[in-house]
Design brief:
The protein is an alpha+beta fold. The chain is built from 13 helices and 21 strands. Helix 4 packs across helix 5, helix 6 crosses helix 9 and helix 6 packs across helix 10. It is globular. It catalyses: cytidine(34) in tRNA(Ile2) + L-lysine + ATP = lysidine(34) in tRNA(Ile2) + AMP + diphosphate + H(+). Belongs to the tRNA(Ile)-lysidine synthase family. This is tRNA(Ile)-lysidine synthase. GO terms for molecular function: ATP binding; tRNA(Ile)-lysidine synthase activity. Pfam families: ATP_bind_3, TilS_C.
């Protein structure tokens, strides 16, 4: 296996002589196998190996056992070792994430910080062919693009994955032939996570009933799709130069782009949306098609998209612009209007309304604390039982204030807007979620402490302002 992995690393130029490589060492079979292979490849490939372990503090004594195992393994072979401890459960609560998401984010932050501190040029992760297959199936079932089917890449930035040329079975056989021990994570046997369900049921069925090399074939397809994606991205670079013009918070596409193949049109539109949004997440094929269809519509037609982006049909152009949620110019003089926010009677019941051309969606949920609460720039959650006079969506009035501390400290809305450097000419157009004069949420800016969800929350009111205007911050 060592020569197979070496050839794979050389094919994708994973390391350069003189570099320091930081391995994420969990203590599981995959990372232990990669540890031994990289340790033996240090001299022939000219790099030096370091290892880092993240204790998530989730599995009690088992987590401590894994950390000790990883440290002892590195000590035995004289490999520099770094141990980090992260309170993942606490992080999940504070950031309203699942423990799985919080753990992944914590690892990424630790790996990046440790690599910087120890001057490691590359970060090595132990993903293998079965991981690629599981990820492909997961993304394919949920809906994805070519890039999503090739998301576990051999090299992405400073992250390398030397084991993508081998499968889980080969890794276990290699460890057994070396008489090497490793740690088993008890949570890997549970089906609570979607990925585990695919690992335990879907992939074994494909391997046993369809083809024993199902995972290897999917991994190879992923590499083929990666080459396809890279080629299409190169074509997109050329088309952007030919058809796109950048302006402040906007990109203008010339009509001539509609003469290109539909696939390339979608790639250009996606590139523009990524540039304006700063991310790709939540940009679906439906969004891309809705923009592409504007080329066939009359001047003035528009569509609202994620992250506060609007696409508008112009004369021989298509303008995509990032905007906020506020009253439109012609509506500003009508400040003072308000719309009551109804609290749905049943759980997961959804109500919809509109305020100043902005669609509003309200959903009542049973308390999800401390599980993930979906909150983004234009989606917030509130405690239903803390509503006093009744929530309304409106613009500002004299006497409005925010509670800015958990103990009840107040700030005048006017002072907050000044401190937040909101332009004076925009303040009367900012949408507010209010309970009497108490402002719960300055939409698109800050939420107050009023109505905040906590451990004692029984019912959660989730409010989204503006379909397609989601932006994480």
């Amino acid at each position: 296996m060592r020569e197979k992995v070496r050839a794979f690393m050389e094919k994708y130029h994973m390391v350069t002589a003189g570099e320091r490589v930081l391995l994420g060492l969990s203590g599981g079979a995959d990372s232990v196998c990669l540890f031994h292979l990289l340790r033996e490849l240090q001299e022939p490939l000219g790099f030096s190996l370091l290892a880092v372990h993240v204790n998530h503090n989730l599995r009690g004594a088992e987590a401590g056992r894994d950390a000790a195992f990883a440290e002892n393994l590195c000590r035995e072979y004289d490999v520099p070792f770094y141990l980090y401890s992260c309170p993942v459960e606490k992080i999940a609560k504070e950031k309203h994430l699942s423990t799985e998401e919080a753990g992944r984010a914590a690892r990424q932050e630790v790996f990046a910080a440790c690599a910087k501190e120890q001057r490691a040029v590359k970060i090595a992760l132990a993903h293998h062919q079965d991981d690629v297959a599981e990820t492909m199936l997961h993304h394919l079932a949920r809906g994805t693009s070519l890039a999503g089917l090739a998301s576990l890449r051999p090299v992405r930035g400073n992250v390398i994955r030397p084991l993508l040329c081998v499968g889980r079975k080969e890794i276990r056989q290699e460890l057994e032939s070396r008489k090497c021990s490793w740690c088993e994570d008890s949570t890997n046997a549970e089906d609570a996570y979607t990925r585990n369900g695919i690992r335990h049921h879907v992939l074994p069925y494909l391997t046993e009933e369809v083809n024993p090399r199902a995972a290897a074939h999917m991994a190879q397809t992923s590499l083929d799709l990666l080459e396809t994606e890279e080629y299409l991205e190169q074509q997109t670079d050329q088309l952007m130069e030919r058809y796109a013009s950048a302006e402040k918070n906007a990109v203008v596409l010339r009509d001539a782009v509609s003469s290109e193949a539909p696939l390339l049109q979608r790639y250009v539109i996606r590139r523009v949306l990524e540039q304006l949004a700063g991310k790709r997440k939540d940009l679906t094929r439906e969004h891309l098609e809705s923009v592409r269809e504007l080329f066939e519509k009359q001047v003035g037609k528009s569509v609202c998209l994620p992250y506060g982006i609007t696409a508008v049909r112009g004369y021989e152009t298509l303008r995509l612009e990032k905007q906020g949620v506020h009253l439109k110019e012609e509506r500003k003089r009508k400040s003072g209007e308000e719309v009551p926010i109804p609290v749905p009677a049943g759980w997961e019941e959804e109500k919809s309304l509109a305020f100043a051309e902005n669609p509003v969606t309200i959903v009542k949920k049973t308390s999800v604390f401390p599980e993930r609460i979906e909150e983004k720039k234009y989606t917030k959650c509130f405690d239903c039982d803390k509503i006093k006079d009744g929530l309304v969506l409106r613009t500002r009035r004299s006497g409005d204030y925010l509670r800015v501390t958990a103990k009840g400290g107040k700030k005048k809305l006017k002072d907050y807007m000044i401190d937040a450097k909101i332009p004076k000419e925009e303040r009367d157009s900012i949408l507010l979620l209010a309970d009497g004069p108490e402002i719960w949420w300055v939409v698109g800016y800050r939420r107050g402490e009023s109505g905040r969800v906590g451990e004692d929350t029984k019912a959660v009111l989730q409010i989204q302002i503006g379909v397609g205007k989601e932006e994480n911050r």
